[in-house]
Design goal:
With 107 residues, the protein is an all-alpha fold. Helix content is 79%, strand content 0%.
Length: 107
């Protein structure tokens, strides 16, 4: 139950954040919803990815320069925490809402 509440709270916070930004830049929420959700999901994914990449580069540099083992090079594995799951669900819901809202333009 705690994880479900974290997922729902994440989605509500993201909706409030995107709504505030859409008011700030004078756009409709529907125009900003999917791309904003995609951007908010991409930020933690890229931070985790580049943190892992930088650690791997450091470990390889130390091993190449000194021969000492600084650590193992690790494969990047994206883990789904409740917050990340909330971001993904929000992105999927916002995509479906956007397609439903602009459906007449797709035909």
């Amino acid at each position: 139950m705690k994880k479900v509440s974290i997922v729902i709270l994440t989605m509500l916070i993201e909706l409030a954040l995107l709504w505030g930004v859409s008011i700030l830049i004078h756009w409709e929420l529907m125009e900003f919803l999917f791309l904003g959700g995609l951007l908010v999901f991409a930020i933690p994914w890229l931070l985790l990815y580049f943190t892992n990449h930088n650690q791997n580069v450091y470990y390889a540099s130390v091993k190449g320069m000194t021969g000492a083992d600084a650590g193992k090079v690790k494969v990047f594995r994206f883990r789904f925490s409740p917050i990340i799951l909330g971001l993904v669900l929000f992105m999927i819901l916002s995509l479906s809402l956007t397609v439903f809202y602009y459906f007449e333009y797709f035909i």
